[in-house]
Write a structure and sequence with these properties.
This protein is mainly beta. The chain contains two helices and nine strands. The radius of gyration is 16 Å and the shape is globular. It binds zinc ion.
């Protein structure tokens, strides 16, 4: 299975007991949006905000930044490794998304419809003209 996201994209993950769990986990989960900051070992490194605690977060020192191919502005931050199996939905793509109705491309678009799709303003408000 290929990777569907790139650094800069934001993804929705499920959290249970301070860990990010598989998308199929159903009970007692909280959903949260995280930003992907690098691709690593067929998965992603996501940024963990400093006020947020997850078991298994990785502290970025100047030594392991290079190993994870992460920009040095993230020194002293925490990251977390996830795979496609942890991505519930794509929240936004840095390079943009296509409207699911008219196929128009919108840079820096966010999913606004059924969690993973973009429905553009025009299609939402004037469905008779599409
Ligand atoms: Zn549209």
């Amino acid at each position: 299975m290929g990777l569907h996201c790139s650094p800069g994209d934001k993804v929705v993950c499920k959290i249970k007991d301070n860990k990010i769990v598989n998308v199929y986990e159903e009970t007692g989960c909280e959903k949260k949006v995280f930003e992907i900051i690098s691709i690593h070992n067929n998965g992603y490194m996501i940024y963990i905000p400093s006020n947020y605690f997850l078991d298994g977060s990785i502290y970025l020192s100047s030594d392991n930044l290079r190993k994870y191919k992460i920009d040095k502005r993230f020194t002293d931050s925490y990251v977390y490794f996830i795979t496609e199996h942890n991505v519930v939905a794509i929240h936004s793509k840095l390079d943009g998304m296509r409207c699911c109705e008219c196929d128009e491309f919108y840079p820096m678009a966010c999913a606004n419809f059924e969690e993973t799709k973009l429905l553009c303003w025009r299609c939402r408000h004037y469905p008779m003209y599409r």
